[in-house]
Structure formats: structure tokens, C-alpha cells
What we know:
Layout lengths: L4 H18 L7 H29 L4 H41 L1 E3 L2 E3 L1
Antiparallel strand pairs: 1-2
Amino acid sequence: MLMRKSNLAMIVLLTAPAVAFAFPRKPLTVLKALKLQQKMERKQLKRQEKAWKRSVRRDHIPRAERLAAEHRFNRQMAELKLRQKEQVQRQKDHLRVLKSAQRHVYLGGTTIQ
């Protein structure tokens, strides 16, 4: 028996919530939460750029102004990526320090690992 795509899609939609509840998700780690937030920031900037490009299509804007705006968006994206990369590195360093502090507990002059 062959199923039509629409029937198959309906079955997937109906069973997807059951599958999601069957396998509980692990809580997000700090790094994963940070990366998720950064992804949302990048998407927001891309949406702003798309909206601007749509508005440019219907209005006549001089080429120089259009190129300046594209350059500004590219520069903003590069700055955002650099800032996000630094955020991730700072978080990794912080976690490394915390792990190291937990590993080395001093009791009476002895190190416990």
C-alpha cells in the first residue's frame, strides 16, 4: 500500500509530539545556550538585511548609497561573528578555570584530584 505524501506528513505531525515526550531532552549546557543565543542574533541581523534589500527593490536608491549599506551590513556581520567568537572563548576559559578549581581542592596542604 502506497501512502500519499500528505497522509505521511499528517502521520508525522501527529506522532512527533509523542516522540518528543518519549525522549526527554537534557538541559542545555552553558556553551550550547550561548551558541543558540548567538545563532538567533545572526538570524536577526540577516533578517534586517533582507528587509532592507526588499525595501531597496521598490525604491530608487543611488548605487553608492546601496553599496555603502551593503558594506555596513557586511561589517556588522563580521563584527558580530568576531564578538561571538570571543564570547565563546571567554566562556570556555571560565569553564576551564571552574573545572580546575573543582579538581584541586586543598585540605590540610594535600591536593585531592
